[in-house]
Amino acid sequence: MESVPQNQVVDIRELNARIERESAFMDILNMEMGKVIVGQKHLVEGLLIGLLSNGHVLLEGVPGLAKTLAINTLATAIDAKFSRIQFTPDLLPADLLGTLIYSQKQEEFMVKKGPIFANFILADEINRSPAKVQSALLEAMQERQVTLGDQSYKLPEPFLVLATQNPIEQEGTYPLPEAQVDRFMLKLVISYPKKEEEQLILRQNLAKTFATVNKVLKIEDIIKAREVVKDVYMDEKIERYIVDIVFATRFPAQYKLEKFVSLINFGASPRATISMAIAAKAYAFIKRRGYVIPEDVRAVCHDVLRHRIGLSYEAEAENISAEEIISEILNTIEVP
Q1: What would the pLDDT profile of 267-305 be if each residue is shown by its tens digit?
Q2: Which helix (H) or strand (E) holds 103?
Q3: Torsions phi, psi of 187, nearest 5?
Q4: For 4-15, what is each residue's pLDDT tens digit?
Q5: For residues 319 and 205, what is the distance between their CA atoms, to the nearest angstrom?
Q6: Rounded Cα gap, residues 161 and 50, in angstroms
Q7: In this predicted model, which residue has the larger pLDDT, 170 or 291?
Q8: To the nearest whole number, what is the mean pLDDT of the chain?
Q9: Cα 234 from chain centroid (whole Å)
Q10: How far is Cα 164 from Cα 62, in angstroms, rounded to an integer?
């Protein structure tokens, strides 16, 4: 019986060495992005987790915080096709997906593909568009295909939607439907840079030459890395830890969190459980480790859950945010 754990130790050691080799490109990618993006470590990490986990990312923050720049830089460094779509109240689904055009020469309908046919889609100010456009994007995000007429067209791999939204209080914004918000693996909240970072941004932008980003990776490298991320080891205790965190959002009373019963309308869906596990594996990979530790789960927990907890009117009246509820859950549930 003694020998079984011993074998596992060897496996973990081998796996760790393999992941360390396979994840070496993360340093190069971080270095390239660091040429242009000052600070915003959390934003860059979140984008990389989405990329490695095949999950879409929602970014929230006031305009001018380098959200578009970060995504554009990442697409350039990976040599991927990038589309930026500015969402406006008059945007139509056809502007996004493409349309069928009748060709008199061919005497048939031809497909004109829209900007959604790219590897990286930046959906800028996604909450400025009405429901029809949102639902068109939803099919692309979930099924990774687009239907034009009676034909379905596969979207390229990797396909990643990075959407930015302005805080809801701003004029002319539509809150996104819950079903769509749940399709985003992570929601990152971007804050202002620190003083010294802002000074560096100022210097960079006043310099005579602006840093250029080199193509350091191919799309194939990312597809291969995604397969490696799946091999990152996750212990059963960590799995239970993730399930407990998600269940605490649904049944707070079972976890001695009775005070949240009246504050939460609905908890996180099973999609949150899956997202947290995959994101924790991707985070371990970024940290060049072959196994998941509780800190990895805690590092991605807020980003995975903050948009998936439905707050009641009571919570809003008491000014209690999803952030506070998640922090309290993490402080209450026993760490394995």
Answers
A1: 899 999 999 999 999 999 999 888 999 999 999 999 999
A2: strand 98-103
A3: -125, 115
A4: 344 455 478 888
A5: 38
A6: 9
A7: 291
A8: 85
A9: 21
A10: 10
Structure tokens at 126: 């996604």
| Structure-token pair, residue 238 | 């960590």
Higher pLDDT, 325 or 130: 325
What is the Cα–Cα distance from 239 to 336, expressed in whole angstroms?
10
H or E element at residue 37:
none
Fold held by 232-332 = Helicase, Ruva Protein; domain 3 (1.10.8)
Pairwise CA distance, residues 224 & 230, whole Å: 10
Residue type, 296: D
Angle at 308 between CA 302 and CA 309, to 5 degrees: 90
At 172 the pLDDT is: 63
Domain segments of the chain as ranges: 29-222, 232-332
CATH of 29-222, one of 3.30.470.10, 3.40.50.150, 3.40.50.300, 3.10.129.10: 3.40.50.300
Tokens at 196, concatenated = 């010294």
Instruction: Report residue 274 as tokens.
Output: 């899956």
Q: How many residues does the chain have?
A: 336
Q: What is the DSSP string of 117-145?
A: SSSEEEEETGGGS-HHHHHHHHHHHHHSE
Say how far apart CA 91 and CA 86 lie, in whole Å.
9
Structural tokens at position 270: 């099973």
Query: Is residue 137 scored above 70 in pLDDT?
Result: yes
